[in-house]
Write a structure and sequence with these properties.
The chain is elongated, with a radius of gyration of 22 Å. Helices cover 23% and strands 21% of the residues. With 374 residues, it is an alpha+beta fold. It has 8 helices and 20 strands. The longest helix has 23 residues. The chain folds into 2 domains: 193 residues, SGNH hydrolase (Rossmann fold); 123 residues, Trefoil (Acidic Fibroblast Growth Factor, subunit A).
Length: 374
């Protein structure tokens, strides 16, 4: 039987990016990850590093390494110089707030960031795209992020200066609304933090009136690093990783060859967990959070209703209510044990038919069903 050998190992998240120029390095992302706290740099070309490939991520990575923090940059994009230890990011040149908003839920599910660094809004100003509505769009985007990854710390930066006087005026008006937006999120219990990035740079730090020079990007890196250090757990502790979920991935039954799934990708409380054809990959992504729980979509927990201990109790997904209702031990032999019930997560009779409901049963010294990561 297969062991549970890869549960806590970093997933190899492959992504490629079109070459941005001779100075830009592009390759397959993921293999370079050093594990640790997953940080998603999120935004537009200033996150991507236009004019200086890697942008602020270069200086931020160097500071994290010097500070002995173990961090994993995550995202579907990949670029930067060889000296940047982790090239993954979620920066999209030319993108506005609404475009990031339209994709963030999927990215959050895929990469399950512990910490998000958000610098967005510059292109709303440059494109004169309903600038008056930009603060509300930002507020909506923050809500989308905190819903997708409710345990993440979200750092929201004011946008950096612009050389055009009229655009800079619009940027200042936009920035003036951000502290109130962030405070409203904090008041509602969300882990959102303000980063005053605008004051850290001047127009002399811009190479083209929009994007920073190498020195300007390094000033951004210093601001991000100071903000991260001020929030406990956002980058773990020096000398080792902090409490952080493992990347989302699928779970497959070894005996059945089927995937642990939520029928119809339901997010409703009480949805029954079943096994289904994997169709080449897991239909449903699961995240071990580091707290003996399994989460789906970042905010539902794999649970046994009423802490049921009877053999045959059905397994559901429910709101975690701050913690899992049911804790699960991820055993090295490939079994999953419900700690509250002392039973094993099982597919009855090794069934291979689609739609079989997952239940918990006596382990009898060894589980009836073994599981492996996919």
């Amino acid at each position: 039987m297969r062991g549970w050998r890869r549960w806590f190992s970093a997933a190899l998240l492959a992504a490629t990016m079109v070459a941005l120029g001779a100075a830009t390095q592009t390759s397959v992302a993921g293999a370079e990850s050093n594990g640790g706290v997953r940080v998603m740099p999120l935004g537009d070309s200033i996150t991507e590093g236009t004019q200086v490939p890697g942008g602020y991520r270069i200086g931020l990575w160097q500071r994290l390494v010097s500070g002995r923090y173990t961090v994993d940059f995550v995202g579907s994009q990949f670029n930067g110089p060889g000296g940047l230890g982790d090239h993954d990011h979620q920066g999209h040149p030319g993108w506005r707030i609404d475009q990031i908003d339209g994709n963030i839920t999927g990215w959050a599910r895929t990469y399950s960031p512990r910490t998000v660094l958000l610098h967005i809004g510059t292109n709303d100003i440059l494109q004169n795209y309903n600038v008056a509505g930009a603060p509300q769009r930002l507020s909506t985007l923050i809500d989308r992020i905190t819903t997708a990854v409710p345990d993440a710390d979200v750092f929201v930066a004011t946008i950096i200066p612009l050389s055009s006087a009229s655009q800079e005026s619009a940027a200042r008006t936009f920035n003036a609304a951000i502290p109130g937006i962030v405070q409203n999120k904090v008041n509602s219990g969300k882990r959102v933090h303000l980063v005053d990035m605008h004051s850290k740079l001047t127009t002399s730090d811009l190479i083209d009136g929009i994007h920073p020079t190498a020195g300007g990007y390094d000033k951004m890196a210093a601001a991000w690093y100071a903000a991260l250090q001020s929030v406990s757990g956002s980058i773990g502790q020096p000398g080792g990783p902090g409490p952080t979920p493992s990347p989302a991935s699928g779970i497959r039954g070894v005996g059945s060859g089927r995937c642990l799934d939520v029928a119809n990708v339901s997010q409703a409380n009480g949805a029954q967990v079943q096994i289904w054809d994997c169709n080449g990959q897991a239909n449903q992504q699961w995240t071990p959070t580091g707290a003996d729980e399994l989460r789906v979509y970042g905010n539902k927990c794999l649970d046994v209703s009423n802490m049921g201990t009877a053999d045959g109790a059905q397994v559901h997904i429910w709101d975690c209510n701050g913690q899992s209702n049911q804790k699960w031990r991820l055993n090295s032999d490939g079994s999953i044990t419900a700690l509250g019930a002392g039973k094993c997560l099982d597919a009855p009779n090794y069934s291979t038919a689609n739609g079989v409901k997952l239940q918990i049963w006596s382990c009898n010294g060894a589980p009836n069903q073994r599981w492996t990561r996919v």
